[in-house]
User: Fold this.
Amino acid sequence: MRFAFIAKHRGIWPAAWMCGALRVSRTGFSAWLTRPPSQRSRDDETLGHRVRASFMASDRAYGARRVWRDLLVGGERLGLHRVERLMRAQALRARPRRRRLPRDLGGRSAGAQHRRQHRQGGPPRETPRLSVRSRVHRPPP
Assistant:
């Protein structure tokens, strides 16, 4: 993390100054810059492309678990947490499933409302609300 910070900000501040401030060696930083990517990061890059392809093929509906199963069927050997990490790195999030029908906004005609009131015995009546003061205090027997 420190080396990545130095590499990102070395256009603003001198690398030697940041290495001293972050207590890392300048030779370690230069070795980190010239080091080739690890096998794991190269594999993550290729798997990231496959994860994205599976996600897009599902019309952005698959979550990490379904993408993981899709890759297992395709012959990949990897864990669920790795797929979750790769999806987070690419900001891939499944669309939430609609759980119920859309809300009824009540666009009915006046006739339907009249029939409903007639079926229930007339227009709705207001029920009296009771408050704490309206209750009568009765002493225990």
